[in-house]
Structure prediction request, 540 residues.
Amino acid sequence: MQSNESADSGADFNISSSLALTKESFRQRIGLRMTAPISSRKENSTTAAFRCRCVRSLPWLTIVAAIVFSKAWSVHASYGIYVGKHLTADGSVFLAGYGDEPSSHWLDIVPRREHPEGTMIIAGADREADYPGELIRVPQARVTYRYITMNYSSFAGLPKPLTNGGLNEHHVAGRDIWSPSRDELRRMTPKPQRGLNYSDLSRIAMERARTAREAVQIIGQLMDQYGYATYGGNSHLFADANEGWIAINFAGGKGLWVAQRLGPDEVRVSRPGYIGEIPADYPNNPNFMGSTNLVAFAIEQGWHHPDAGVPFNINRIYGDGQMRHPIVSMIETRLRAKAGKIALKDVIAAVRDPEVTRDSAGYGQVAHLRNRVHSELGVLWVAAASSLTAPFIPYWLGVTDVPPEFKWHRYLTDGESDRFMNQELRGLESTRYAFQEFKRLFYLVKEHEKRFLPEVTEALEAFESRLIERQPAVEETALILFKADKPDLARQHLTYHGQTEAMNGLRLGQALANSIEARTKVGHGIRQPAIQPQPKLVDP
Prediction:
């Protein structure tokens, strides 16, 4: 965002790190030019205040002040939940969450593919990234697995499209969540940096991993060999039907990473991702993995003194030092209170929780990971926008396509506002974009949340309960067809059910939005912004 700075229109502000603003959201919402970098597009700057110079006219200062002193307005970056199989009602594992991105979002079913020998992946970050880098080439595997994912378009100097994980044909699920590295590490990041970024690693894990453990091994080997291109610190959650793993990639260009197993009796909520104490012999412990320099580098920097008898705490040494943030403790405590009885609806409710899920949430996902299930009956429940006002729809791995309304559209896509319509896109753009439709419902609800949110939540939960009740019959029918050596019919059945319910969910959202809009206009009126865009004037 560019502007002309003048003496009478500039004013300095110290914005507390507790606001947790991302660079893009701060620029877009307030219209400021930063005079000191914010650590990441996805990352919540938790360790230091930053300074900025307002370069808009004075009325914008009112908006800045309102944001600075408003209650709890913040943009965190992504949310993940792991629930072990001993805690669930049916013995399954859940991996759930969403991504925070100021961007378009769309559902993508990526087929299993064979690649010619010598095929390369363009990976990493370019000079436009928050931490500038150089793109690299990484060899692609000869065979990549089928997977379901949500893509998004807030590219920020990274190869498009971006992804935060999903569910693959081996029933390995993945999620990405920010995990801020300590300030010193972020300042060490080379300029330019080289390596794979978080989205590269997530996508490759979905393409190649057969277990959650193998997903960590794959991304660890890639970081060891090619390096990691950071946005300030990131974490991954991987899970299969037996266990989960959390892995953290640190900023700094030093090749630092660590991973910890999550067992059948654990609940782990990441917001941000964290790991606490690890054993000194972690390379020989089956519950941990990490780079070979993980301990030695901390000692070299004076961040850890082995003779002091203090355990090696990853979060204290390499992270933000806060371990479990308050919102993490709250959600983990609520889920643990239902130990042994946690069901799909409880995990959906945890993703939808209004204390966590806000406008920044681009979608919602719940991977329901079950043993002894046909490979094409693995299921990922997906909300097409913030799940506060969008229903979760089941998509089985046997589904071959999604409705056009749930595919990529130009709305909120990075760079699309700068160009005219490509004629090839007219058919797709003529459909109602599910992400935008559910956004409309979200905004209507948030204007008068106490009045409208309860009825919307009730409607969504009733809709989802019907889908959950029908799930066994849908799967049994598909399984009969698979066993009868009629896989194409089974896939048609699953695709028809998934597409039909996706459109039913969209129509429900539109009906709720139309009803709430009508009642809002009659009972409250449509609130208008205090400031409208105006031509720039210069005082005489």
Q: What stands out?
A: Confidence is low (pLDDT under 50) at residues 1-76. The longest strand covers residues 93-98. The two ends are 26 Å apart (CA to CA).
